[in-house]
Structure formats: C-alpha cells, structure tokens
Sequence to fold (226 residues):
Amino acid sequence: MTPTIQADAEQLAQAAADFITAQVRANPHLSILVATGNTPMPTYAELARRVEAGDVDFSRATAVQLDEYLGIEDDDPRSLWNWMRRSFVEPLGLTRTVRLHSPGQFGAAIRDLGGLDLAILGLGPNGHLGFNEPPSPPDAPTRTLALTPASLESNRAYWGVAVPAGAITAGMDVILAARQTLLLVSGAHKRGVLHAALRGPETPEVPASFLRRTALTVIADEAAWT
Ligand code: F6R
Fold:
C-alpha cells in the first residue's frame, strides 16, 4: 500500500478533510474513532470551517474516544477527552460521543454502535496507535497500561509538564475492526516509522504495521515519505 502524498501539512489537512467529509456525507450516522495529537489538528480545523460554511453536517455522527490518561479530571488541561472535545466534538457540532472509561463499558458501547465505521489515527514515533505501545499484537484488547519512557517524553511535549504514567487505550482489536482506517502522517521525524509500518514486516514491534490488514487510507506529507 502506498500513501497518498501531499506537499505539506496544509495540503494533507485538505485531503484528509475531503476523505472524512465524503464518509459522513455517505453515512450521516458515521461512528468515528478520533485521535488527538498534533497531526490531525489542521484536518479538524478544516472540517470545522466546512461545518461553519454549511458544507457538511456531523450532528448525527458519533465521536468515539481513542485513549486517555488515568487519574486526571476532565477539566485537567492534559485530559485527552478535553482536547478531543475542544478540537473535534464541539467545533464539528457532534452531539453523540462515547467516552473511554473502562474496557467493559467501552466494549459494550462499541457493540451498541454496531462497530466503528472510521478510525482517524496518528502514527506514534515508535509505531504506536492510540496508546498501543510496542509490542502490541493485533488482538491486544482495550486495556489500561503503563506508558513507555518514549511515549512519556513525546506526550510531555504537548503540555510542557509531565503526564500521568498510566493510560487507557482502545485495543488493537477495536482499531483493526473499524470498517475504514485513516492514518495521517506529517513530518520528516515520522519517515522511518512510516516506512516500517507500510513496508516492513507486520510485527507487534510496530503496531501500525497491522493496519495493512484493514481498509486503510494513508495520507502523508512529502517530508514523511520521500
Ligand atoms: C492521540 C494518540 C497518539 C498520537 C500519536 C501521534 O490520541 O492516540 O497515538 O496519534 O502519538 O501523535 P502526533 O500526531 O502528535 O505526532
């Protein structure tokens, strides 16, 4: 599988917004797993502009939380729910959401939805998806876990202060069962891991490598691929 290559992060956001817009137009009840992180933010901002302009309507779609830190309140600035709410749920006008509180609650909620239609994902510098850190096999379930030193460091960069050492993540099994997966990758620092994910062996050491088993669309900028 070869990614769709865009000139830069701005063009990437346009292409990703086009893809997501088409999906929700085809199925207004789309259930969407929503990554936070830096990569999809320009895409979400572009979607918000389109909603504002009346070009697309997310009001009947459902936003599903991908991951969260343990032991912090919703109003903590580091809360990933908070980030998802500010960047996606509110600006796009979604009224239906599924929070990730516990594996049992989450599994039941996904079943009630009839599964996920679309997973919007970023690529961790170590190949992680959500907080499915290496090694994560394809059947890794929704679970709580301790973050690796690499992820603690990259997550600290978002807020400039330490993040909790524990997290909960949607499982690899949930992500890989999504009817469509969309992986967004930007920047030269992701080039090595993107090539490993798409061209290397499928391995728990690069959890994103298992996305090739799914109906996968990868949109990357030139810096991340060429
Ligand atoms: C965020 C998440 C993470 C990020 C990944 C890439 O909800 O689950 O897996 O998608 O760490 O982060 P950025 O986009 O900041 O490089």
